[in-house]
UniProtKB/TrEMBL annotation:
Main location: membrane
Catalytic activity from the UniProt record: 3',3'-c-di-GMP + H2O = 5'-phosphoguanylyl(3'->5')guanosine + H(+)
Transmembrane parts of this sequence: 1-21
Organism: Massilia consociata
Covered range of the whole protein: 245 to 529 of 529
Membrane topology: Multi-pass membrane protein
Enzyme Commission identifier(s): 3.1.4.52
Keyword Metal-binding: no
Superkingdom assignment: Bacteria
Keywords: c-di-GMP, Cell membrane, Hydrolase, Membrane, Transmembrane, Transmembrane helix
Subcellular location per the Swiss-Prot or TrEMBL entry: Cell membrane
Residue ranges annotated for the EAL domain, each copy included: 24-276
Leader peptide range in chain numbering: none
Protein name in the entry: cyclic-guanylate-specific phosphodiesterase
Length: 285
C-alpha cells in the first residue's frame, strides 16, 4: 500500500471499529446506504487574505449525518471510502452540493473561491474534469472560482500528476497541493507541476514560535514556495501571533479557527452580508 502515514491506518481502523460497534452493519455497506440516502453534507471554512482581513474564499468540508443524528467527520470515513472504491461516488455528491450551495454567490462574485478536496482516485479519473465541466455549464460560476485540493498522495506518479494538473488548469480550474510538508514531494518536483496554490500543513503552523525544529522548517517552505512563484495558504491558524508571522513572511492567505470554523453555507452568507454592510457604512461615513 502506498499510504505513507501509519497514523492514517490507525484512524481508519479505530473509525471502523467505532462505527461497526454502534451499528451492526459493515462499514462499506453503511457508506453505500449513506450515498443512497444522501446523508453527506458540506460545511465551509473561510479563507482570508492576511493583508486586508477580507475573505478570499472558502473551503468545502464534507460531513456525514447518520440517521441517528450523529455527525461523522471526514477523517473517519474518507479513508474507508477510498479503500472501498466509494470515494468517486462521494465526490460526485460533494460537487453537486458545492454547486447547489455556492453557485449563485460565485456567479455574482467572480473573484471568490471555493476549495474542493479530491482524493487520489478522483484526481486520476477522467470523470473529475468532465464532471466539473458539466456542472459549470449548469451554474453561472466560472472554473476559476474553483480550487481543486489534492494531497501529495495524489501526486505520487509524476507523469499522471502533470497530465491531470495541466488538463484542469487548461480548462481554467485552479489546483492546490494540500497538507504540504506531510508527504515526500520536493519543491522542485512541485515546480514541474505548475500548481496554483500550496497549502502549508497545520503541523507547521502549530510549530511557529515554539522553537521546535519544525518551526525552522516553515520558514524554508515559505522561502522556496515564494521562489517557485506559488501562492501560499496556511492551514490551521489559531493565534494572532501565527497570522502576524505568516503575513510578515509573505504568506497571503490563511484559514483557521482564528478567522472562523467550518459552518453551514447559510451562516457564511450571513457573515458575508454583514461584512458588506459594514464596508458600505465605512464608505458612507
Ligand atoms: P484538509 O483539507 O486539510 O482540511 C482542513 C482540516 O483542518 C479540516 O478538518 C478543518 O476543519 C480543520 N481545521 C481548520 N482550521 C483549523 C484550526 O484552526 N485548528 C484545527 N485544529 N483544525 C482546523 P475536517 O473538516 O475534519 O477535514 C479533515 C480532512 O478530511 C480534510 O483535511 C480533507 O483531507 C478531508 N476532506 C474533507 N472534506 C473532503 C471531501 O469533500 N472530499 C475528500 N476527498 N476529502 C475531504
Ligand atoms: Mg483541504
Ligand atoms: Mg489540509
Ligand atoms: Mg488534512
Amino acid at each position: 500500500r502506498l499510504v505513507p502515514v501509519g497514523l492514517l491506518a490507525g484512524v481508519t481502523l479505530a473509525g471502523a471499529i467505532l462505527l461497526l460497534a454502534r451499528q451492526q452493519m459493515a462499514l462499506p455497506a453503511a457508506l453505500k446506504t449513506a450515498l443512497r440516502r444522501k446523508e453527506f453534507f458540506l460545511e465551509y471554512q473561510p479563507v482570508v487574505d492576511l493583508r486586508s482581513g477580507r475573505w478570499m474564499g472558502l473551503e468545502a468540508l464534507v460531513r456525514w449525518r447518520r440517521q441517528t443524528g450523529e455527525v461523522v467527520m471526514p477523517d473517519l470515513f474518507i479513508p474507508l471510502a477510498e479503500e472501498n472504491d466509494l470515494i468517486v461516488r462521494i465526490t460526485r455528491q460533494v460537487l453537486d452540493a458545492v454547486c447547489r450551495d455556492t453557485g449563485s454567490y460565485l456567479a455574482a462574485h467572480p473573484e471568490f473561491h471555493v476549495g474542493i478536496n479530491v482524493s487520489p482516485a478522483d484526481f486520476h479519473s477522467r470523470e473529475l474534469l468532465a464532471g466539473l465541466q458539466q456542472r459549470m455549464a449548469t451554474i453561472q460560476a466560472r472554473p476559476a472560482n474553483l480550487i481543486l485540493e489534492v494531497t501529495e498522495r495524489g501526486l505520487l506518479d509524476p507523469r499522471v500528476a502533470r497530465e491531470t494538473t495541466r488538463a484542469l488548469r487548461r480548462h481554467g480550474f485552479a489546483v492546490a497541493i494540500d497538507d504540504f510538508g506531510t508527504g515526500y514531494s520536493s519543491l522542485s518536483y512541485l515546480e514541474s507541476l505548475e500548481l496554483d496554490y500550496l497549502k502549508i500543513d497545520r503541523s507547521f503552523i502549530e510549530a511557529i514560535g515554539t522553537g521546535a525544529p519544525t518551526s525552522q522548517v516553515v520558514g524554508h517552505i515559505i522561502g522556496m514556495a515564494r521562489d517557485l512563484g506559488l501562492r501560499m495558504m496556511a492551514e490551521g491558524v489559531e493565534s494572532q501571533a501565527q497570522a502576524d508571522f505568516l503575513c510578515r513572511h509573505g504568506v497571503q492567505f490563511a484559514q483557521g479557527w482564528l478567522f472562523g470554523q467550518p459552518m453551514p453555507f447559510a451562516e457564511i452568507l450571513r457573515r458575508l452580508a454583514a461584512a458588506e454592510d459594514e464596508e458600505a457604512v465605512a464608505r458612507a461615513g
